[in-house]
Design goal:
The chain is mainly β. It has a single domain (2-8, 21-140), classed as Nucleic acid-binding proteins (OB fold (Dihydrolipoamide Acetyltransferase, E2P)), CATH 2.40.50.140. The protein is built from 2 helices and 7 strands. A 5-stranded mixed β-barrel has the order 2-3-4-6-5. The protein is globular. Mean pLDDT is 83; it is low at 9-15 and 161-170.
């Protein structure tokens, strides 16, 4: 995974001077699980998913889990089109970019950790550079400058099981 902090400076016009902000983006490769449409009482429903991001050496892969609200317009279309593949427990591997990462605590409701506090990493899924379903190319993002946005790896990891810890993305 790669982290980058970008300082987006405001434009020189006086009307845009209040739009100063910092972006924290993380890019990586991971398995997409738990694709769902999150229903909210107020506001619009949104697509959500969990990404089990691969990290470490190919011979000893480890995972970091991100519970994501899908925010990018194209990413939302792609994730929605993967809903059935997720329900069928197909292996979905993707190159991704997430932003606005933050931790959220929750309480385990069952199992060995019942009653204990856990931490879920929340983020916004901004972009998918490519997606493979059961090893077959499903989606490739159009390149911005003629080169691939992120190379497709050949991970030696086994399919990551669906995760259930944490709460809904908000």
């Amino acid at each position: 995974m790669t982290n980058s902090i970008e300082n987006n400076q405001p434009s020189t016009t006086s009307t845009d001077s209040a739009n100063e902000y910092f972006d924290l983006h993380t890019t990586g490769v991971g398995y997409v699980n738990r694709i769902r449409e999150a229903e909210v009482k107020k506001g619009n429903n949104f697509m959500a998913c969990t990404i089990a991001a691969l990290r470490g050496s190919k011979s000893a892969v480890e995972y970091s889990y991100f519970d994501c609200r899908v925010s990018g317009a194209e990413a939302s279309k792609v994730i929605r089109s993967l809903l059935n593949a997720s329900k069928e427990n197909k292996q979905i591997l993707a190159g991704f970019k997430i932003g606005d990462l933050y931790p959220e605590t929750f309480t385990y409701k069952s199992g060995k950790k019942e009653g204990r506090t856990g931490v879920s990493l929340k983020a916004h899924l901004l972009y998918l550079s490519w997606v493979k379903v059961d090893g077959d190319t499903f989606y490739t993002a159009p390149s911005k400058n003629g080169s691939a946005a992120q190379a497709e790896p050949e991970p030696e990891a086994k399919k990551e099981p669906v995760t259930t810890a944490g709460s809904a993305v908000g």
